[in-house]
Amino acid sequence: MKKTCWLLALITILGVAGCGKEPQAPLETEPDAAAGAAGQPVTEVSGARIARADAEPWNWLSHGRTYDEQRFSPLDDINTDTIADLGLAWYFDVPTKRGMEATPIVVDGRMYVTGAWSIVYALDAATGEELWRYDPEVPKSWAQYACCDVVNRGVAAWGDSIFVGTLDGFLVSLDAATGDVRWRVDTIDRKPPYTITGAPRVVKGRVIIGNGGADFGVRGYVSAYDADSGELDWRFYTVPGNPADGFESKALEKAAETWTGEWWSYGGGGTVWDSMAYDPELDLLYFGVGNGSPWVRDVRSPDGGDNLFLSSIVAVRPDTGEYVWHYQTTPGETWDFTATQHIILADLVIDGQTRKVLMQAPKNGFFYVVDRTTGEFIDAEPFVKVTWATGIDKETGRPNEVPGARYEDKPFLMMPTGFGGHNWHPMAYSPKNGLVYIPAQDLLAYYMKEPDWEFTPGFWNGGTEFELLHLPDDPEVVAEIVKSMTGQVVAWNPVEQRVAWQYQHAGPWNGGMLATAGDLVFQGSLIGEFAAYDAGNGDRVWKYPVHTGIAAAPVSYAVDGQQHVAVAAGFGTLVPLFGGKPLASANFRNHSRILAFRLGGNASLPAPTASAPAPVPEPPDSTADDATLAVG
Fold it and tell me: H or E element: which one contains 530?
């Protein structure tokens, strides 16, 4: 390591004042990993350690490494001068064949990562040796309630515990040393079809977890549980319920004024299924809120309205869940334009003034810069092609919508689509050069209301006509449509609100980002390459064939003084579920693995084996009655 990185570890940390739940201050030196993680005691994670994560750059203690979720590693042994010597250090075969979306957590030589079905794996970060495994035994039938595969985006570490949210709605505390269950709590109402795919965060001794299911007719909320006991501390609902039942807070009473009709009978949506960030100085917890249920606003709120807090960024007090402010990216959301995408906190000099900002590139195609103290809108500009709005009003922060974009009377050609100009795949921010790296994509689709739509509890309830999304039978036409689906790394200057550089991929739905002090940006791709780019100009300076698509974001850590870059590889998630036909024609295969790279690494992956597509089995004889068949 360059001395500048490791001198940070000599800083004396006094800790962060809190509520008495801070177990341990940052370590001052990297633990000796020569004996392997299995021979080392588990070290505790605390808010002090996460807040001062730069003092121990060998670790990746939280989902975005730091509370500000910048996904920037101070390690710099792997850099533009040494990148050619980067090789595979080890790999771990994950025994499932579904999507991989997790960000690994690395604590002093131990790696904790999740795979499909919410299974947790503890690995030796130096060798990839499995230390323990926890399988929550999610009922396979619960997959029917997951819009976008049985994925999981990772765990959280606090004290000597590891926390995971399971697809079927449980939050589980595990012993970090053994994987034994310490407590397990049910976080959902088991009647509506909720799911959990997001990674928890832990702030001030509280495990924060949201959920998914807006497409199936649920009411969104985010909850905080005591990390020691599993007791519920607070819950913040993101959309108001039935006014006749009273409101849980003044904020929801005010939000109800932006709804009409009997929205509560459809659930309302607004699930908090991914992004969060925390500012210890302001003591504000930020989270992104999802789409409406159903998608079509005219159905859930027939007389219009903004429908708060759908498609909003909300700031609350982490001790109580008390509402502080919100900013809505897409008022009156009607396109599945969630604001659950990655949130990054940074201090930027704008117009000569240092501003504490929050940055997000949500599905709707605009890159937002918001004051994170007050929620004041600062600026927004498109980072992909946009057809539904001409821009964001600089005074009001509201979109200038294009006539017909709400597809009230006829279909409208939308860009972006519900897949988003940017989806859940994490961005990264480099404080060295001030750029944000966005895994962006350009996709188009016709939106149209579904004729004679009726709400069906427990099933998909979009209210839009998906027949328009079906691909034709002509393979040449399919090939042309696939060509129009593009994906790119967009290096974005958030101060000047413009593209600094762009790297064009072969297609959309590429992996999340990692930026490092070595002036590199790492990302995996849909077509099975893991690559490094020059952070300043976008030149691709290194690539490695991994034989499977990558959607997850990489991390960087160090053991025995050697910097590593690791990523969860494995194809699956949303795109294969919706785009199986064109992807099958491209012969994509899934090999779920955890991959770790280091300078001088000389391991190799097994050669990929060709396999013919599995034949479609003949369906069994139907035993359903007419009423069941009518539902579908």
Answer: strand 529-534
